[in-house]
């Protein structure tokens, strides 16, 4: 090494680092081909570059790196002057690195070696010649192929982003970990495991339906959901609305805010089965009789509905529609049916009861006749 590099500790150490650097430029371009083909499609499933053009771009990129000569030291200093914010020590370090790259490159060519198979990323970064390699690649591709310029730019920007240069291209994903990997498949498997771990971590943070039983009800009816009971014991868990069936043939819908007592015979003429408990709980949240779907089907059941005195509703503001419907039945028998028809504020529940009672009277008069 002493015959073409000045013998000192700095240059010797830099020369050894360059010669032992892995992966080489040739291997990185092979990884670039795999990476470009694997991430070739956008969200619209349109190819950013045709697969057959990837190999062509890679071939001319390697050719441009091998064919472009490196200027001498004086010309390098003229083309790359010292920035204003750069220290003198850093400037000397850049010049020393370029001297090592320049000497090793031409020494290797004299012995018939290919620089793309001998040097790695440091050759491109220390020589500060990426713009030269890039422009030469574009010229070779335009002269010898018909590949669109957009596809050429996509291929070169993908490789440029992995070089970790000062002027990084915008809007391009940095795949340095894959492109400059000595074991491409191993790095790819490791990245997949990390991605699976992140997904599993996000899934653990999402509460399930069992952990938050009131979430579905809140989505359907717009009510605020109860706090999640995850991480709490049964005594601390939030109470969930429930329905109980008593001995008098009544369904009691119990909530923290109100108690609802209903006569089953007033709506179906027979006790409500256990399979319909959930349906009634959902219906109790409705706001109109049309939504409830509880128009009395039988005159006999309507008679029992009118004659029955339901439980008194203590809190009218927080009671449900069925609570108010049962409460209003108390004064219905003594009220005038005609006033219900003429009243503009008469609710749907009173209209149903009035029409049903009128039909009941007509039916009774026809039977007596």
Automatic annotation (TrEMBL):
Biased composition (Basic and acidic residues): 195-207
Stretch list, region Disordered: 195-242
Domain of life: Eukaryota
Protein name, UniProt field: Uncharacterized protein
Species whose genome carries this gene: Spumella elongata
């Amino acid at each position: 090494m002493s015959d073409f590099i000045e013998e000192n500790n700095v240059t010797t150490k830099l020369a050894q680092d360059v010669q032992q650097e892995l992966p080489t430029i040739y291997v990185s371009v092979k990884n670039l081909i795999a990476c470009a083909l694997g991430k070739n499609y956008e969200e619209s499933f349109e190819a950013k570059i045709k697969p057959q053009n990837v190999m062509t771009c890679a071939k001319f990129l390697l050719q441009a790196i091998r064919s472009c000569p490196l200027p001498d030291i004086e010309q390098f200093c003229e083309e790359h002057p010292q920035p204003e914010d750069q220290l003198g020590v850093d400037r000397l370090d850049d010049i020393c690195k370029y001297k090592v790259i320049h000497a090793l490159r031409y020494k290797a060519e004299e012995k018939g070696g290919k620089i793309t198979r001998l040097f790695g990323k440091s050759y491109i970064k220390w020589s500060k010649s990426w713009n030269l390699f890039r422009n030469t690649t574009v010229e070779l591709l335009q002269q010898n192929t018909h590949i669109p310029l957009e596809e050429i730019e996509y291929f070169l920007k993908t490789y440029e982003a992995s070089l970790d240069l000062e002027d990084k291209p915008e809007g391009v994903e940095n795949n340095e970990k894959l492109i400059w990997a000595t074991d491409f498949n191993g790095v790819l498997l490791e990245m997949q495991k990390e991605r699976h771990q992140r997904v599993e971590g996000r899934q653990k943070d999402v509460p399930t339906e069992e952990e938050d039983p009131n979430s579905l009800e809140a989505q359907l009816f717009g009510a605020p959901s109860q706090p999640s009971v995850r991480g709490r014991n049964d005594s601390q868990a939030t109470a969930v609305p429930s329905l109980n069936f008593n001995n008098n043939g009544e369904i009691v819908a119990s909530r923290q805010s109100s108690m609802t007592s209903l006569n089953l015979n007033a709506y179906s003429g027979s006790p409500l089965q256990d399979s319909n408990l959930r349906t009634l709980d959902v219906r109790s949240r409705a706001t109109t009789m049309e939504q409830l779907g509880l128009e009395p089907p039988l005159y006999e059941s309507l008679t029992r509905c009118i004659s029955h005195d339901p439980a008194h509703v203590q809190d009218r503001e927080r009671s449900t529609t069925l609570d108010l419907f049962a409460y209003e039945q108390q004064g219905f028998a003594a009220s005038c049916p005609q006033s219900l028809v003429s009243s503009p504020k008469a609710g749907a529940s009173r209209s149903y009861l009035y029409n049903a009672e009128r039909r009941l009277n007509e039916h009774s008069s026809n039977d007596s006749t």
